[in-house]
Specification:
Oligomer: single chain
Radius of gyration: 21 Å
Catalytic activity: 3-phosphoshikimate + phosphoenolpyruvate = 5-O-(1-carboxyvinyl)-3-phosphoshikimate + phosphate
Shape: globular
Mean pLDDT: 97
Pfam families: EPSP_synthase
Bound molecules: shikimate-3-phosphate, phosphoenolpyruvate
Organism: Streptomyces rectiviolaceus
Number of helices: 12
CATH architecture of the largest domain: Alpha-beta prism
CATH superfamily of the largest domain: Enolpyruvate transferase domain
EC number: 2.5.1.19
Subunit structure: Monomer.
Number of strands: 23
Number of domains: 2
Low-confidence stretches: none
Length: 422
Amino acid sequence: MYRAPFWPAPHTDRPVNAYVRVPGSKSMTNRALILAALADGPSTVREPLHSRDSALMAGALSSLGTTIEETADGAWRITPGTLRGPAYVDCGLAGTVMRFLPPVAALADGRVRVDGDPQARNRPMATVINALRLLGARLTGHGLPFEVHGRGRLLGGPVTVDASRSSQFVSGLLLAGARFEQGVSVAHRGKPVPSLPHIGMTVRMLRGAGVDVDDSTPDVWHVRPGPVRAPDTGIEPDLSNAQPFLAAALATGGTVTVPDWPGSTTQAGDAIRGLLGEMGASLARTPEGLAVTGPGRLRGVDADLHAAGELTPTVVALAALADGPSRLRGIAHLRGHGTDRLGALQRELNALGGAVEQTPDGLVVTPRALHAGTWHACNDHRMATAGAILGLVVPGIEVDDITATGRTLPDFPDLWEAMAKG
Ligand SMILES: O=C(O)C1=C[C@@H](OP(=O)(O)O)[C@@H](O)[C@H](O)C1
Ligand SMILES: C=C(OP(=O)(O)O)C(=O)O
C-alpha cells in the first residue's frame, strides 16, 4: 500500500513576512459546477479550484452526461447534457460531492451508484437519502455506498429535514430543486443548522442563475420550479484555505498578505478576520490585499464557531500557542466532518504535550509547552494545515501525510515552504 512520506513541517525563528495568493473557493467552485450542469445552456467557470474535491465533482457530473472542457487559462467550459445513468460517482471524502450530487443523480435516467473513501462512510448521509425518497426518488441503501434509480425526472415538493449535523443537506436539495417538477420547499426541524453562511452562498448563487428562492422565513427555503440560467462565474479566492497562511503571521509575529480578499462575500471563511483580531492581530486592507500582522502576545479566545466550523483546526493551533486558555463552542457537528475533528485535534495536540479537552459542543484549549512529534492528518486537509501552523514555531513536528491538503489545496506544501523561507 502506498504511504505518503512524512513531511517535516518548516520551522522558523523569524517572523514570517509573505504575500500568498490562494486558489479559488471549493464551495463556490462545486456549486458553480452543479448549476452549470443543470443549466439550459453552456457556461464558463473562471478561476475554479483545481483540487481533488472539485475534480471529483467534475468527474461525477461528466459521468452523468455533462461535458466539461478546460480552456488554456484553466477555466472550465461546461455544456449540460441529458442526465443519464448508468454511472458511478466517487465522492472521495468531499461533503459537497456526497450531499450535492445525489439530488442531481435523482434527475438522471438510469442507475447511479454513489460511493467514496472508506472514511467517507462515517459521514452523515441518511438525511439526504431520506429527503430524496420523500421527494419521489427511488434509492437503495441508507448511507455510502448507495444507489439512485432515476427516471429522468423528480416530483419534488415540500420536505422536512433535520439539518443540525450539516448545512449541506439543505444546500444540496436547493441547488437541484428548480429542476424538480414542483420545485422544493425545505423546512428544517431540529437543533440549529450549522454553517448558515454556506446556505447563504447557495441562495445567492441560485439567484445569480435566475432561480426564484424565498428564504424569508428562518429555517424554511422555497425554490420555485424553472430553468437554471448559469451565468459565467468568476470564483473568489478560498478564504478558508487562506486561514493557515494568515495564522502564520500570528504564530510568528510577522505579516502575511492575501490578495483579492473580497469586499463582501458569502464565504464562511471571512469570519477568520474577526477571530484573528480577537487573538490580537492587526488587519488592514492594503492595495496588495488583506494584510494581517501578528501581535507580540497571542491572546486566547472564547468563540462560537457554529457558523464557520471549518476555521476550528486553525483557531485551535493558534489557541495552543496563545498566552491563555481558549473555549470554542457550537461545533459538535465537526465530529461528522472528514474526520472527527474534535477528537482528532484533542488527540494530536495532547500527544505533543498540549492540554485540550472536549466539551459536548466544542473544545477547551489550555496552552502548554509543546514538543516535537508526529502530527496525524487523518486524511483531513484542515488537520494537516493545523499541524503545519504548529510546526512553524515548535521544532521537530512532522505531518504524517501532507498530501491530505490535496482535497482543496494541492499546492499547500509549496506555498507553505515558500512562505516560511520568506
Ligand atoms: O456547503 C459547503 O460548501 C460547506 C458547508 C459546511 O459544511 P457543514 O455544514 O457540514 O459544516 C462547511 O463545513 C464545508 O467545508 C463546506
Ligand atoms: C468540512 C469541510 O469539507 P466538506 O464538508 O465539504 O467535506 C472542510 O472543507 O472543512
